[in-house]
Design a protein that fits this description.
Blueprint lengths: L1 H19 L1 H23 L2 H16 L3 H33 L10 H11 L1 H11 L1 E7 L8 H18 L5 H20 L10 H32 L14 E5 L13 H29 L11 H13 L1 H10 L4 H18 L9 H17 L3 H4 L2 H12 L5 E2 L1 E4 H14 L21 H20 L6 E5 L4 H15 L8 E6 L2 H15 L2 H10 L2 E7 H8 L1 H21 L3 E7 L11 H6 L9 E7 L1 H7 L2 H18 L2 H13 L1 H19 L4 H8 L2 H4 L31 H10 L10 H9 L4 E2 L5 E2 L2 H11 L1 H15 L3 H9 L4 H22 L9 H28 L5 H22 L4
Parallel strand pairs: 1-2, 1-9, 2-3, 4-5, 5-6, 6-7, 7-8, 8-9
Antiparallel strand pairs: 10-11
Length: 908
Amino acid sequence: MRQDVRLLGDVLGEVIRDSAGPELLADVEHLRRAVIEARRGAREASAGDGASAGDEIAALVASWSLDRADQVARAFAVYFHLANLAEEHQRIRMLRERDTGQQPMRESLAAAVAELGHDVGREHLVELLASLRVHLVLTAHPTEARRRAVVSALRRVSELLDVLDDPRTGTAHRAETRHVLHENIDLLWRTSQLRIKAMDPIDEVRTVMAAFDETLFRVVPVVYRELDRALAGQASRQTPSPVPAFLRFGSWVGADRDGNPFVTAQVTREAATIQAEHVLRALETATTRIGRALTLHEGSAPPAAALRRALAAASAAHPELLTEITERSPQEPYRTYLLYVAQRLAATRARHADLAYAGPAEYLADLRVVQESLTAAGAAKQAFGELQHLIWQAETFGFHLAGLEVRQHSEVHVRARAELRAAGPPGIEDGSAPDGALDRGSWSAETEEVLATFRAVAWVQDRFGAEACRRYVVSFTRSADDIAAVYELARYAMAGGPVPELDVVPLFESAADLTNAPDVMTGMLAIPEVSRRLAANGRELEAMLGYSDSAKELGPASATLRLFDAQAKLAEWAAGHAVRLTLFHGRGGALGRGGGPAGRAVLAQAPGSVNGSFKVTEQGEVIFARYGQQVIAKRHLEQVSSAVLLASSPRIADRNAAAAATYRDVADRIDAAARSAFRALVEADGFADWFARISPLGEIGQLRIGSRPAKRGLAPARPGAVATMDLADLRAIPWVFAWSQTRMNLPGWFGLGSGLAAISGADGVHGADGVHDADGAEVLRRAYRDWPLFGVLLDNAEMSLAKTDRLIGARYLALGGRDDLTERVLAEYDLTLRLVLAVTGHDRLLADKQVLSRAVALRDPYVDALSYLQLRALAALRGPIPDEERERLERLLLLTVNGVAAGLQNTG
């Protein structure tokens, strides 16, 4: 990896020197050496000396013109993109190296099968597999700061690194590859890091489609095959697979309209159409490729009766097409039929009704006719190899790719329903809107859009099937009436016509809503539409838990503990009502929004809350981090899937239940103290305005990294204005994003120190043996060791603290002119750092994660360089300056925001 970083860094240096002159390269090197030396000195000296070195660096960046500062910031931002690429390549190398031994790799499906086979036996393992469902929902939450042009340039550089990394590459080819590498890094340097045009929702749809086209469609059957190989051993690819297609994908992109006025009914229709186009094209290409390869002669593999009948039916329905294909594939029935199937997919995509499939079930039936015929002919390797992969792909993605999930805020429904009821005829309050009842009203634009959304859902279902857009998520669900309102509005929208099939999903986000969740679910059972859906789907129901807003309201420690309690209570509720409940986890990418290692998080879930089914959001930058490379995507999907299998076993559930009961008193006391500390900070007089002054919060919206405004129901801040707001209006993403830019990462740890102190410094704590234990610190250490949830909480906080820089963070905090708030934040940081290290037993942060620790340490000085440049811009922007200079300062600020996000590898 060092070799790759050195290569890419040297090429970037040459590009900078050749394009902008040696003086710029000298300034970049001057700053680079200064921040590295400051880091080295800070480790060896006092805080005062560190501050002095920081003053010298601040003076250096202040001495440059704004144009030069802009160029230096751009150089460091591009460097981080290249360094991230080198780290990604190293991770792929490591995964490949680990996968060469006789023992299954840790957190793999093979390892989970071996563990479960030992724990519960083969029979119970087969039962678990039958109910296994891992549902990943892609969202457009704006946390991917890189432009698509930058991502494309980096992908080309990545491919060139692959060539240079291949020992088979010849001398001439290697030399040519280096020349092309220079060209592409030069292009990356000359490409604007900032978006000129704001993204719209359809841009976001097309961005997500890149992950499907390049990774997801290809990697899904590889994951299934890993599980098949673990179960079937040598018989894999030669016998019917016991592995169901357990992965499903959903999408909020183009469907999530909560606080985003740019997502309209028309956008949702277009999103569904784009998704269908991509998946149908992918299936058509794969079917054609496999069909062309199946050149089995009818004499060596005679077609079964079912395949002969299918060929005859095709010939009768489309004689010219079958004649054309047969002439190119004489006496090759398998090839002929699959190429005919590919033509039917093309017709489905082009909407040629006479040849098109009615839906994916017909297509799958055709594939199984071919598979069964191959099996009967003794060609098992052909039946259960690539053809099985195609069947898995069709079962996973259907003809819609991912189920679009509409999301809207409950208050929008309240206003729309009140407007409609007020204007409706007698009896309309019960939702029985007669034909034409809606024609008499003139509704507000908001209500018209609500009604249009339901019609769009009906249109999508009619064209692509109910699975294409069935789920409707209600943000801030507070009662069962919020769910009933959705069904009532759907009846209004359809005005007596058929109502679309809806699974309405409550989203519980606030502390009060999490507490009331079981009561709301009970109320839902009384809604006629919910009762009918339960009867039709085997009593399956979903409830969503919001990690982001709960963490913003309660702080990271309290939110984690409250969410665990809510999961446990909902699992208990589901068991008591004979409901198969899937909990939908609205986790963000950043640690302050429920992010962190996904596999460990699954294994720490409340007992009974997984039960073979796990659903989670994959947001923004996380999509490309996890699904940008096939090797990494496969690893992530295996980690999550294996964790879901293990978490569904009685042993893991019993372990989590016992630990939660043992440390109930400890958790309650941590929750109370941590929440009190967090609320005291965010409710302090003037906190919101102080936060807006010390961070680039008001400027983040100008990055144009997503279509959704940073605040619910409010227009973006005027350029150059310092944001003022009620924090309740602020979305969790800019809250976390802005704090990460200040290098404090406060949403990932604040309050935890106070929570731990309530135990470590207290008498009368009940220990793990259930008796009085005066040593609270020892109780915390045992909880860290024995309770997975508590271990994940502290490990995630430790990672967040490792990305925090106290010296630089203090410079940001000082911009607000509130010494009291600055002192409160720094004191809680010091307390949290000290107690996290004491409880984990580490002598330094990430002591047990050497690779991650070294990666953070190597990056920190370069992030420092960007932070000093950002501080210069931010300090100037918070004072009176001419408009022309403000525009240049804002550009510098946004460049540094982009670079720091790349350096820390997280935004929101």
